[in-house]
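Q: what sequence does this backbone want?
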């Protein structure tokens, strides 16, 4: 999930890598998208999201920014991302009491100390569990336990989980990819949905997704999240219900909320339960 899109080998320096700094349109920064930094403060989000989190590796484009951009566009909300991923880790390294798990829970809790709500968890992991038959066979139980633990520790028993199923690795020793994919698909807990990443383009290492594939995966995650967990009224701009003749106020409504806006005002906006919509002006 940390993202290796655009990470290339440096042919002039053995075992060195660098990020090509190519950011597709879907992953561009936006004033309404923020990230929670390693220093535990909010800042404008930009690629690579995990540069100060997965700091021992070269990070590139991942699915986070394209996910956030689609959610922002569809729901007209501020989006805060709390990156926690570290590449090349197994599911057991995310068990309760382990450093990675405890850091994730801490970051999630601190991120909402000044307001806001945790609306979901995106999970894309599994490559490191495909080499050993035992790891693959216990993956489902370990993943279900992780979900139960994080929901309990955050006090969010219905926390939405959107999980990208592991892609097919066509090199290396990942002999049990399909077993891990089957385990991910068998997870039967409420508010857990899967996105199948198989078929997305891989880099020349036949292991990590290309930049374009990372952006596409982010859109896929967002589509599933919006479909399953976003209330429909938040995804639909309000419609003009009526204009009162000779009065400045105009009534607007969504399918479950309503409000009043002055179409002659400079901002010409209405807030409906904290979601802001812009209406056409009247003259």
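A:
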């Amino acid at each position: 999930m940390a993202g290796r899109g655009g990470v290339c080998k440096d042919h002039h320096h053995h075992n060195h890598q660098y990020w090509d700094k190519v950011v597709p349109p879907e992953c561009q920064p936006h004033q309404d998208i923020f990230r929670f930094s390693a220093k535990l403060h909010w800042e404008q989000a930009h690629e690579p999201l995990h540069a100060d989190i997965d700091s021992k590796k070269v990070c590139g484009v991942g699915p986070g920014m394209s996910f956030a951009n689609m959610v922002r566009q569809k729901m007209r909300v501020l989006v805060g991302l709390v990156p926690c991923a570290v590449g090349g880790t197994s599911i057991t390294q995310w068990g309760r009491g382990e450093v990675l798990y405890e850091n994730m829970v801490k970051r999630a809790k601190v991120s909402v100390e000044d307001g806001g709500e945790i609306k979901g968890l995106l999970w894309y992991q599994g490559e490191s569990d495909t080499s050993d038959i035992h790891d693959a066979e216990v993956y489902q139980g370990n993943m279900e336990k992780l979900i139960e633990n994080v929901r309990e520790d955050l006090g969010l028993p219905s926390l939405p989980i959107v999980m990208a199923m592991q892609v097919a690795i066509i090199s290396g020793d990942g002999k049990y990819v399909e077993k891990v994919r089957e385990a991910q698909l068998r997870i039967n807990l409420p508010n857990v949905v899967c996105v199948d990443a198989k078929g997305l383009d891989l880099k020349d290492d036949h292991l990590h997704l290309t930049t374009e594939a990372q952006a596409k995966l982010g859109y896929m995650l967002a589509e599933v999240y919006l479909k399953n967990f976003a209330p429909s009224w938040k995804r639909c701009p309000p419609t003009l219900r009526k204009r009162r003749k000779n009065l400045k106020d105009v009534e607007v409504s969504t399918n479950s909320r309503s409000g009043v806006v002055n179409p002659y005002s400079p901002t010409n906006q209405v807030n409906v339960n904290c979601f802001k919509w812009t209406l056409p002006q009247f003259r």
